[in-house]
Specification:
With 379 residues, the protein is of the alpha/beta class. 51% of the residues lie in helices and 20% in strands. It folds into two domains: 103 residues, Rossmann fold (3-Layer(aba) Sandwich), CATH 3.40.50; 238 residues, Heat Shock Protein 90 (2-Layer Sandwich). The strands form four sheets. It has a five-stranded parallel sheet, sandwiched between helices. It has a five-stranded mixed sheet with strand order 7-9-10-14-13, covered by helices on one side. β4, α4 and β5 form a beta-alpha-beta unit. α6 packs across α10. The radius of gyration is 31 Å and the shape is elongated.
Length: 379
């Protein structure tokens, strides 16, 4: 594809001559403008690959000032065209870090050579800048990751330690019921920590694009019912409620009565589905009032399943909603690190692997509803 070039030249005949020379060498001329104001406007409108800038322009602003604004605002390379070789002009031009400096009169080949060198340099600098930005993002994500790991593992480890101490020191004082409750809390925390490790592994696989999609057939109602029961033991601060409309529009909260319905059998990636629902339900519980209700509703249409996670929590602002699932954004509540952004990033990746959709509807102070639609695989 031919490079697009904007010519900023206040001498009409010279500008046309430059245009013809560029066309002969296979370039595309985006426009010709005589002033700094028009140059800035055209750069914003047309986004050319390169600007040929005469230093002396009509109006109150010269080409050097204009070139600096173009580089600062648009990161587009500029080559100066000038008949002036005095020291002052040359020093000002050099200070603006141009991609070339061509003296008039010049040969078309000389100009074409300067353009190719400038485009090549710009391409190289862009690659270096993007690599540095990516490295900075990775460093930030690493720091964020370790903060999240420390925060997320601290609570279940504390629960395991407390339960173990109770079992060790109060063996004779604890009833069988309380012993069983301690053991269940330990088992639940271990499962929760295992899910955290799964999420971190999934996050790493999505970041390097190695996450495999492996759908299998299974009972979706039973899967959701068992997952909610498991999460309820790990998150006692809220009541988790599972409802489904899988079997002929009937609703149940146990997942058992309709569990044998053929409509309950689906073909999805169980590992990814577990990550999707676990992250969404965990986030809903984390940001909901104590003793409030978090709902998972399951229904299906002709080609897939619909999952709705609804809470009565603090809600998410409009600005935050637009960022949450586009980047593993670090959400901070009361200055505590949270895996919410990381979790929703994982959710988005898993939904995309299913070729599904995710929508978020939230009102501050009222609550949040997340709707995930996953089409069934034909594998």
């Amino acid at each position: 594809m031919a490079a697009s070039i904007l010519i900023v030249e206040d001498e009409g005949i010279i500008a046309l001559d430059i245009k013809n020379g560029l066309i002969n060498f296979g370039y595309e001329v985006a426009a010709i403008v005589p002033t700094a104001e028009e140059a800035m406007r055209k750069v914003g409108e047309l986004e050319p690959d390169l600007v040929l800038m005469d230093i002396k322009l009509q109006g109150g602003q010269d080409g050097i000032e204009t070139a600096q604004q173009i580089r600062d605002n648009f990161q587009i390379p500029v080559i100066y065209l000038t008949a002036h070789t005095d020291g002052t002009t040359l020093n000002r031009a050099t200070a603006s870090s141009p991609f070339g400096y061509v003296l008039k009169p010049f040969e078309d080949r000389e100009l074409a050579t300067a353009i190719e060198i400038a485009l090549s340099r710009h391409h190289t600098e862009t690659g270096i800048r993007e690599a540095l930005e990516k490295e900075q993002q990775l460093n930030e994500l690493k720091s964020q990751f370790f903060s999240i790991v420390a925060h997320e593992f601290r609570n279940p480890l504390s629960t395991i330690l407390l339960s173990a101490e109770l079992l060790d020191k109060s063996d004779r004082q604890l009833s069988e019921e309380k012993k069983s409750a301690c053991l269940q809390r330990i088992q639940s925390c271990v499962k929760h920590m295992n899910q955290l490790l799964e999420d971190f592994q999934t996050s790493n696989e999505t970041s390097v694009d190695t996450l495999s999609f492996s759908p299998t057939s299974f009972n979706l109602v039973a899967f959701c019912h068992n997952l909610v029961e498991e999460l309820q033991m790990a998150h006692e601060r809220c009541q988790l409620v599972f409802t489904n409309q899988i079997d002929s529009g009937k609703t149940n909260k146990s997942g058992q009565e309709n569990g044998q319905s053929p409509e309950a059998i689906c073909c999805l990636d169980q590992r990814m589905l577990r990550s999707i629902l676990t992250n969404l339900l965990t986030n809903a519980v984390t940001y909901s009032p104590v003793d409030s209700q978090v709902e998972l509703n399951l229904s299906r249409h002709s080609q897939g399943a619909i999952f709705q996670i609804r809470d009565q929590g603090r809600g998410i602002s409009i600005g935050e909603q637009s960022r949450l699932m586009n980047h593993p954004h670090q959400v901070r509540r009361n200055r505590n690190p949270s895996r919410k952004g990381l979790g929703l990033s994982i959710v988005k990746q898993c939904v995309e692997h299913h070729q599904g959709t995710i929508a978020l509807d939230s009102t501050i102070g009222i609550g949040t509803t997340v709707t995930v639609i996953l089409p069934f695989s034909d594998r």
